[in-house]
């Protein structure tokens, strides 16, 4: 990698380097990047990570280049990034570039867009960076386990004119289920997780550390990029008095808006970019809570403010909107509507569903370890001889409106590959200030519509990003004709 953004983890950095070291990094010029960055090598293999904190046991994980999260990949909008994936795992893998609108062959979906990369093999991804923003990468095979054991990382695409900030920081949020000994709990694929909320963990981490503090400098303005890389946990981040501006969601600019005390909901797969001013906030006011699950609220992290050695940008003018990414707006008046229903899980009214060529009672489907349907069909993960048909055939260049209905009692963040879409309001028009996104969260029982131009030919996954739902039937694909 030619460049790494500042990637502070926690107090360890703060104590190790001292406040002066952090302050010194403030206002440091950002590292210039080449138009065509040198190729990056990502080696997937076993490693260990200190997830809980200093003095706690190390956890055996799977990692890219030995680190959890993996290296931050970074390039300029318009550049092409080349990444060589080397598989040193004991099983096949792939890399998917979540949120990037790529040529289909680079999308990293096993059997659908490429052969799985076998142990000992390599695969080179060429990624044209059309859109700026915060993205991430992860495998798309045996996802619950591969991502759940640590195979994930962030990808940042720099816009030509980034907002003025003192520091551009990244927090990769994750959620781990660890045993008392600090090992990853081996309960992957448990029927309970598949039928309920997915694999929720017991240790939340920021940049691979559950230590829970983060060093900031009074007076600085931070661009904070968040990535939810958890298997199943939906984060509802309460920033309290910090009251940051939201400037982008899922890589795409939104008109800057203060959160105003409302929690920022980030479902698995989602990203947000914030502008955070550290203006003399007391440490009590600088706790960031996760309040999404009402029965389980906790403090994710506390900001610990040090003294600056020069003035920062906090309190300067409100941020202006980032430049829009080059995404075509759907023609809603002439859009063709396609309906999708999502069902299954615990308490479902579903009595039967299609699995392959058979119509089966739902309890028989459950016995086979499957739990979810899209359009009354269970979609098991792809295999070498997959026969799953596309959920829909889309004509290239045409606008589509997808009417999504969640018939289940559970939340589902629904993600589309290869395209970015608008979420429509109840009136069928884009919600006010709507921005493009790649993942839409459906609450239990909720209907929402999305619209986009099907301008990227190929077969594109359309699935729930709760990985245990994805693997238990809730992952199909749509085909955009060439
Ligand atoms: Cu984050 Cu199908 O992907
Ligand atoms: Cu789901």
Helical segment count: 5
Largest sheet: 6 strands, mixed
What ligand molecules are bound, each kind once?
Answer: CU-O-CU linkage, copper (II) ion
Percent helix among the residues?
A: under 10%
β-sheet strand percentage: 35-45%
Q: How many DSSP-defined strands? A: 32
Structure in words:
- The protein contains five helices and 32 strands.
- It is mainly beta and 482 residues long.
- The strands form seven sheets. It has a six-stranded mixed sheet, with no helix packed on it. Strands 11-19-18-13-16 form a five-stranded mixed sheet.
- β14 and β15 (252-258) form a beta hairpin.
- The longest helix has 15 residues, at 11-25.
- It starts with 10 loop residues before the first helix and ends with a strand.
- The chain binds CU-O-CU linkage and copper (II) ion.
- CU-O-CU linkage (C2O) is lined by residues 96, 98, 138, 140, 269, 415, 417, 461, 463, 465.
- CU-O-CU linkage binds at residues 96, 98, 138, 140, 269, 415, 417, 461, 463, 465.
